[in-house]
Design brief:
globular, transmembrane, transmembrane helix, antiport
Amino acid sequence: MIPVLSRSAHIRALLALGLPLAGSHIAQMALHVVDTIVLGWYGVTELAAVVLGGSCFFVVFVLGSGFAQAVMPMVAQALGRKDETEVRRAARMGMWLSILFGAAIYPLFWWSESILLALGQKPDVARLCAEFLRIAGFGMIPALLVMVLKSYLAALERTQVVLWVTVGAVFVNAALCYPLVFGRWGLPEMGVAGSAIATLIIQILTLVIMALYAGLLPSLRRFRLFQRFWRPDWHALAAVFRLGMPIGLTGLAEAGLFQATALMMGWIGTVELAAHGIAMQVTSIGFMIHVGISSAATVRTGRFAGGQDWTNLRRGGVMAVAISAAVGVVQIVIYLTLAQPIVGLFIDRSAAEAPMILTYGSMLLAYAAAFQMMDAGQVLALGLLRGVQDTRVPMWIAAVSYWLIGVPAAYLLAFRADLGGAGLWSGLVIGLFFAATALMHRFWSRIPAG
């Protein structure tokens, strides 16, 4: 008989997995925060360009990372079934698909200036953004491979290394970004290109460290992760593709919602786009905590689903919701009470545009408080559903919620109701509400009572 774990045992297990993952996600975001702060002190146009470029890179990355995210539940369920061969097969083919995707997508970065101009961005912002993306685009393959290794190690409950490697990368990035952007310590002043180069170096360095750990750690050698890596495994590749493509498209639908608001904010003005980028950076850091909890829920749910343990699966799901909700309450209080000091960290207050950015960014953080619970709910529901390898219907739920409801609502409220940036962020609230409600209903309605 399978023992039923107590609520406290589920909470401890989720936190043991989720906190290091959340920390690593926050550290990953901190890499971009460092770039934003450095460029915010360098110039408003450069800041807007890197904000836009980072958003474009992230949207493409989210699509490709679906294969990496598919590795996590596949490895977790294989471990639940005691099938170590499947662990290796899923991880390897996740890396294959990541390499193929990164190579295929690079032309978008190379021709990004023309694309951004066609989308209505200002010429100086589009030019600098393309300068950033042509360099940063080379980092897509190492970034995706790191994501696969993170998923693989998380499913094996090896999350501490993921945290510390990412934290170390933040400090190295800070040491590289500042001198490359401003031209300090004997290095040339490179502006946005310096930021991109620093990010690329970090991505390659992180990949090398993670690969060495996953391949050489004695307790993990039995999986033989890189042995005959060049040999294709078409059955496993197809399985990862079938599970991962809907995950990537789901992430693309959500990231596309936020990217669409960034593009529309660019229509309103450069200062507004810069404030939007700062507010997004802040809320994204908080969101990473929920992503960590969601990933932990995926691993735990996958293990229980692999062992057909529905009672523990449901109880663990309830505890994951409770943890995420508690974090959401704290974040709401922070966004409503500390908005101006937080936004002020990202700008040079002596700049002429600083008061406008400070006011506008603080207003947007108030709207972030409004969608905090809904954003947490939808990402947690997706994590729970991935644990049971349910990804196709959630993909359609996300597409409808974000693109048939969220984006039109944002456009109408911003430009037809003349609410500007407030209208754009109100559209985010509406889209996330529909997604969270529908996804949570799908998970709880499909899990056996146990």
